[in-house]
Amino acid sequence: MAYASLLSLTQTLHHILDPDDHSLVLHQTDQQIARSLHDKFSLLLSFLEDSSHKNSETIRRLEGRIRDAAYEAEVIIESYILNQILLESGSHEDRTESHMSNQIISEWEQKHEGLQMLL
């Protein structure tokens, strides 16, 4: 499950970084962040491929943490993309949506601290 979550996340990041897809224009800083995340999560994919033959409790716990972090990261990224599309289309949604996204990002960063040490 961790592998599938990471694969989905890296495909989402690859899609938004695709220079041939002009449906979403990212600021340079956002592009750098997305590229960095793509590289880090690709590294984790390689790690999972290499450790797939190992069946230890530590690996299973780590895979669970990776799966959860990847799922939460994809939710945040998809929320960000949706907000960008709404802003670009001139649609002005309630600011609560943006505030909720910031809160989700903050919570994810707190949960993700342990996993970041692996990267």
User: Regions with pLDDT < 50 over 5+ consecutive residues?
Assistant: 94-100
Q: Termini separation (Å)?
A: 19 Å
Largest sheet: none
Mean pLDDT: 76
The fraction of residues in strands falls at under 5%
The number of E-state strands comes to 0
Q: Give the C-alpha Rg.
A: 16 Å
Q: How do the helices and strands follow one another from N- to C-terminus?
A: HHHH
Number of separate helices? 4
Helical content class: over 70%
User: How many structural units, i.e. domains?
Assistant: 1
The computed structural class is mainly alpha
Shape: elongated
Describe this structure in words.
It is a single chain. The protein has 119 residues and is mostly helical. The protein has one domain (2-116). The protein contains 4 helices and no strands. Helix 1 runs antiparallel to helix 2 (28-51) and helix 1 (2-17) packs parallel to helix 3. The relative contact order is 0.15. Mean pLDDT is 76; it is low at 94-100.
What's a concise summary of this model?
This protein is mostly helical. It contains four helices and no strands. It has one domain.
What are the defining features of this structure?
119 residues, mainly alpha, 4 helices
Note the topology:
Blueprint: H1 2-17, H2 28-51, H3 57-88, H4 95-116
Helix pairs in contact: 1-2, 1-3, 2-3, 3-4
